[in-house]
Specification:
By secondary structure, this protein is of the alpha+beta class. It has one domain. The protein has 8 helices and 10 strands. The strands form 3 sheets. The chain has a 6-stranded mixed barrel with strand order 1-9-4-8-7-10. A two-stranded antiparallel ribbon has the order 2-3. A hairpin with a 2-residue loop joins strand 7 and strand 8. Helix 1 packs antiparallel against helix 2. It starts with 7 loop residues before the first helix and ends with a helix. The N terminus is likely disordered.
């Protein structure tokens, strides 16, 4: 989720404003309220980057679940990325996980010297290192967005309650040339949080300061596909049953295949 340095002023301006209001009210900020405020500010920063006042219809939603979005400008982001340059939002947290970096196990540093294969060199990640971000969040202000039920193909079969995302952890195929990588949707961006006409419809990504980027990928995805820092890829949603064996099935408490494998091992252990 990257914008030029001037947008850092928005983020830090919001932080200062929020802290000033807390002081003026005479209340000490608790750790819980700090996390809540940080997540809210994160969303507000991205909201300020989005075009407003656009009336949308559902006419552009494509019938059927999954199709390729082609020639999408693709950039790399990582868990623990700090604000700077084209990234105004700290990635210690994600749109759906306020402790993203901690739950992952550390910083997913992208430099080659900090990596071993598709993993961070210093630790085994506790979540899938193959992750991506797309510019739509189905939750805002703690509630599920009104359009979500109509635009998300798998909404009815996965919805639990308002405010609980049905997007986190969904599988995608990302293609570059003859190579295809598989990854899970774990954050929102780049730049937008509401562009469902692109994510689920026929729109192209909106113009932005990263050459119209419409997909952020993790260092593991970047390395598997041999991507440049700014590149183009094709992507589409896939069912977990369509994901072939590969390095994307090996790691992570949030990984569909790791979860299934552990369940099978537990069942075998019970029978012995």
């Amino acid at each position: 989720m990257r914008t030029p340095g001037l947008f850092l002023q928005i983020f830090f301006g919001l932080v200062v404003t929020s802290n000033s209001q807390t002081t003026a009210q005479g209340g000490a900020e608790t750790p819980t309220s700090f996390v809540d405020n940080a997540m809210k500010l994160r969303e507000e920063v991205l909201f300020k980057l989005e075009p407003g006042g656009i009336q949308r219809g559902l006419n552009d939603v494509v019938p059927g679940k999954f199709f390729w979005r082609t020639s999408i400008v693709t950039t790399t982001f990582w868990i623990g990325e700090t604000p700077g340059g084209n990234n105004p939002v700290p990635n210690e947290s994600s749109a759906w996980d306020s402790n993203w970096s901690r739950n992952y196990g550390g910083l997913d540093l992208p430099e080659s010297g900090d990596r071993q294969g598709f993993l961070p060199a210093k630790f085994v990640p506790r979540q899938n290192p193959f992750y991506i971000a797309l510019p739509y969040n189905d939750v805002s202000g703690g509630k599920t967005k009104p359009e979500a039920a109509q635009i998300i193909p798998w909404f009815k079969e996965t919805f639990v309650k308002s405010g609980q995302t049905v997007l986190k952890g969904r599988w995608l195929a990302v293609r570059k040339g003859s190579r295809t990588c598989y990854a899970q949707w774990e954050d929102v961006g780049p730049f937008q949080t509401d562009h469902w006409e692109y994510v689920f419809g026929n729109d192209r990504p909106r113009p932005n300061l990263n050459q119209g980027a419409g997909l952020d990928v993790s260092p593991a995805v970047r390395d598997y596909l041999h991507l440049s820092p700014t590149d183009t890829t094709d992507w589409k949603f896939v069912e977990a049953s369509e994901v072939p064996p590969g390095p994307w099935t090996l790691y992570g408490d949030n990984n569909t295949f790791v979860i299934d494998r552990r369940k099978r091992e537990q069942e075998i252990a019970k029978r012995q």
